[in-house]
Amino acid sequence: MQIQAMGYGNRQMCRMDRFGFPRTSAKKGKVVKGFQTGDIVKAVVTRGKKLGTYVGRVAVQARGSFNIKTGKGAAQDINFKYCSLLHRLDGYTYSF
Question: Which fold has domain 29-91?
Answer without folding.
Answer: SH3 type barrels. (2.30.30)
